[in-house]
Amino acid sequence: MRKTSHIKYVAALYLSVFFLLCSASIVKADYVEDKTNGVSYTNKVFISKGYASYHAYGGDSYIQITLNDTTDRVTNVRSSSKNLLAKKTSETVYTTTDNYFDETLGQNVQITNTSYESIYISFFGKKKGTYTVKFDVVDKNGIRKCTKKIKVYVDKWPSTPSAINSITYAGKALFEHEPFTKVTSGKIKVKLNKGYSLVSIKVKKINSKGKWKTTTVKNGKKISLAKTAKETQSDDYTSWTNNPLFPETQLLITVKNKKTKEKWTEEFRIYTMNKK
Predict the structure, then answer these.
(1) How confident is the model at residue 12 (pLDDT cuts 50, 70, 90)?
(2) What's the CA gap between 30 and 18, in Å, rounded?
């Protein structure tokens, strides 16, 4: 019997979830391994209200789920309240095709198997409170094997010292554009706290060719946000597609401490809705 194999890797990032700025706060997590159902995941998450994180790759307001049986799949992610958004934002799909000659049948036979790994669920808290997120684990035939629960605790965003007093885009404070904005162009204005000076403002986004491009803009000038952020890469064995639900535009603001002359860059993000 002759047998050959070919592996095709497909990484499908469902990228979602609702960003505002670049950071998130996760305070504590208890890691729980469910040996009975073969599911490993974090069952408690502490996040900051109004901050979003996703997985692909970065942030803290998310959990990873590992399945012992990789032919199983995570489905039906739901939240106990409209004030907490929860979504499966990343999943890696492996497709393995085995070709061999069956001597009994006297012909070539092809068998295809699919497995799921690197599964992530992300969260966005609109209001303070304690919420429950549930998800189902189903087998390869779509039959539910178990339902799991995650406790999500949402609190206020802790104060972080910054040189930046305020940022406005299109006439509104940056946080007013959460979790995404429909305004795709507008003036960006940065106001600093006393003792700091502005060095530069840079805008970074993916262009129509799928490449990251960075431009420098002046304070108070008009900028355009990313409307799409589709990236595709492939070779003989691998196909990878990333088409975020909320394309990001990065604001890279470099400031200087007037007294110490120290310079550093603070990063913020604005998100639009991907309609393509």
Answers:
(1) very low
(2) 25
